[in-house]
Design brief:
With 342 residues, the chain is of the alpha/beta class. The protein is built from 14 helices and twelve strands. Its cofactor is Zn(2+); NAD(+); Co(2+).
């Protein structure tokens, strides 16, 4: 088992890679606990959930709302949770985001932990302490920075996932390589077939490298005032595409990365060869690299809902090379022009 640590202002988060699902009870101890999961995960893993207090929420981005959080508060009251209690999210990124936010605000904050069951959650969403929900079409508009007490990662659970769900996790791992680790990027190029076939050693490598990258960045800048902004590579255009087209998050981020790489190329930062390496790698993992819509106006309007916008400028992540990213102010009008190219 490999261990990693994030030292946040609110708490220290212990991330355990290679910790089997059935060891969760050891982390709960004698505390009163509530499990938060979704319908899909509950149907597969309910026998392994070590608490009688199980709140099952609906699956999907459409239910990542304050209404779902309110329903969880009601469940927490029914379970008699106090400030010594523990909330455990078992599921993908959406479950972790919702449960982390509910735990961070119930009784002004109680302890919580994550057992991520999707690759996207293992490489990204469960690590770093961002928790939140969507609001009136704005992605993650309402949320907190608060670290989970623990994150237990077992790559063995990924074998139950459909290919499209796995692809979303591959997109986030590619993102980490693109912004901070050329060796991870090259590993995903050289071992694409084994990774897609869920070779355990290859999966553990991309999860481990992703955690190292993200934990290092978050330890420097927990609340996204500088360095952490690089983790948003592909997410400005990605969130826009996700909101308008309703496609999965990872697929939208893949498109967003191509858009950001194209702008990086136009600005003279990224070579044509590196641009093609990115698009080729995304294609290897069956991820989209173009926007499949003629409704460009809706996409342009959605740009104004981006949290990284400061008046008419966005803190935008660009690539200087594979493995090296920078953050630069880019006018929204420039991004609207970019959308016309896809």
């Amino acid at each position: 088992m490999k261990s990693y640590m994030i030292r946040g202002q609110s708490a220290t988060s212990h991330i355990q890679l290679g910790e089997p699902f059935h060891h969760l009870e050891q982390y709960i101890g004698k505390r009163t606990a509530a499990i938060v999961t979704d319908e899909t995960v509950y149907s597969v893993y309910h026998d392994l959930m070590p608490s009688k207090n199980i709140a099952v929420i609906k699956s999907g981005e459409a239910f990542k709302t304050l209404q779902t959080v309110e329903a969880l508060y009601q469940k927490f009251l029914e379970y008699g949770l106090d400030r010594a209690a523990l909330i455990v999210a078992i599921g993908g990124g959406i479950v972790c985001d919702i449960a982390g936010f509910a735990a961070s605000t119930y009784l002004r904050g109680i302890s919580f932990g994550f057992v991520p069951t999707t690759l996207l959650a293992q490489v990204d969403a469960s690590v770093g302490g961002k928790n939140g929900v969507n609001f009136h079409g704005y992605k993650n508009l309402i949320g907190t920075f608060n670290q989970p007490e623990f994150v237990l990662i077992d790559v063995g659970v990924l074998k139950t996932l459909p290919a499209r769900t796995l692809g979303c996790g591959f997109a986030e791992a590619i993102k980490h390589g693109a912004i901070a680790d050329a060796q991870l990027f090259a590993f995903m190029e050289d071992h694409a077939a084994a990774i897609r076939n869920l070779d355990p050693d290859c999966l553990e490598r991309i999860v481990s490298d992703s955690i190292i990258i993200k934990s290092s960045i978050v330890n420097q800048d927990e609340k996204e005032h500088g360095e952490r902004r690089k983790l948003n590579f592909g997410h400005t255009v990605g969130h826009t595409v996700e909101n308008v087209l309703g496609i999965p998050h990872g697929e939208a981020v893949a498109i967003g990365m191509v858009a950001a790489a194209e702008l990086s190329r136009q600005f003279g930062y990224l070579t044509q060869a590196d641009f093609e390496r990115l698009t080729n790698l995304l294609t290897l993992y069956n991820l989209p690299i173009t926007i499949d819509t003629t409704n460009r106006q809706a996409l342009k309007e959605a740009l104004h809902k981006d949290k990284k916008r400061y008046e008419e400028v966005v803190k935008f992540v660009l690539l200087k090379a594979i493995g090296t990213a920078i953050v630069q102010d880019v006018p929204i009008e420039e991004l609207k022009r970019l959308l016309e190219m896809f």
